[in-house]
Design a protein that fits this description.
Helix 2 packs parallel to helix 6, helix 3 packs antiparallel against helix 6 and helix 6 packs antiparallel against helix 11. This protein has a domain of about 180 residues. It has a two-stranded antiparallel sheet with strand order 1-2. It is built from 11 helices and 2 strands. The protein is globular and about 85 Å long. It is an all-alpha fold.
Length: about 280
């Protein structure tokens, strides 16, 4: 009598999109935290903290502090300027450029993209996991630096901290949204173009500042237009700061800003995932 055939062994189940993304995230986050870019990230977010410490030291020494048109600017107002100028207009875009464009481009340059794409997971899951690692890494560094700047500049006594704390919460959410949207947009640039860093820098520090200074509809094709409209703090009403603020006075409503940012961020990630799935990456010898 013939022996019964051994039971068929089912092939291993391929991980779902979420499971694959989380695996790539776990692998990428450790690499990202110990990369050379982390030193650059620490230097970028450390600059506002150093300026805030200098501001605090000048105040403690009884010196004049910052004045606009002869009027002394209080700590909460300076904090608002830091958010408006340093974080939203420089730190958030530059981190989005240097991290977002590198998520796929670095793998192509280091010729490791084939090892990732030969795994039994969707290519878009690789992109999703790397993007999530970027977002966690930058949020965990940028937002604590904002809190440090806030604690250094806003006085604890006199009700200044209590009255401005809601604005701080909005600022933190706004900066997190900026990191997410800029990162998603530049992730698309990195997946689409062969040399994305130059294109990203031109967009962030050429196109956006240029068209924001021009009245008309072109400013609607920038991310900064919608982010800056959500900043809760006002700026000084006199001098150069007032002139700068008047340029951005024509702002959309809150719901339009939130909807536009969501469309840009989610749309960029969806298109980036489609590009990665369809594109053939040819490695240069």
């Amino acid at each position: 009598m013939a022996d019964p055939a051994p039971p068929a062994v089912a092939p291993p189940r391929a991980p779902s999109f979420v499971e694959a993304s989380l695996r790539v995230f776990d692998l990428t986050l450790g690499q990202m935290l110990w990369s050379r870019r982390t030193i650059f990230l620490a230097l970028v977010v450390g600059a506002p903290v150093a300026l805030a410490a200098l501001f605090k030291a000048l105040e403690a020494a009884g010196l004049a502090g910052i004045r606009v048109s002869g009027t002394r600017v209080a700590g909460p107002m300076v904090f608002g300027i830091f958010i408006w100028v340093l974080y939203l207009r420089f730190i958030i875009p530059v981190l989005g450029v240097f991290y977002g464009t590198s998520l796929i481009a670095d793998e192509v340059e280091e010729k490791t993209i084939t090892y990732l794409f030969t795994r039994p997971i969707a290519r878009a899951a690789v992109l999703g996991g790397k993007y999530l690692a970027y977002l966690v890494c930058t949020v965990l560094v940028v937002l604590p630096s904002v809190v440090l700047v806030y604690l250094l500049m806003v006085p604890i006594r006199g009700g200044g901290m209590a009255s401005s704390f809601p604005s701080l919460v909005i600022d933190l959410g706004l900066l997190g949204a900026g990191l997410a949207v800029y990162g998603a947009f530049f992730t698309l640039i990195g997946a689409w173009l062969k040399h994305p860093l130059i294109t990203g820098l031109v967009f962030a520090f050429g196109w956006e500042p240029g068209v924001l200074m021009i009245p008309g509809y072109l400013r609607k094709f920038t991310i900064a237009y919608y982010l800056q409209a959500l900043v809760p703090q006002g700026m000084p009403q006199e001098g150069v700061a007032s002139l700068l603020q008047s340029v951005f006075r024509d702002v959309p409503s809150t719901w339009v800003c939130l909807l536009s940012l969501a469309v840009i961020g989610i749309g960029s990630l969806v298109v980036a995932g489609w590009v990665v799935e369809k594109r053939e990456y040819v490695l240069e010898q």
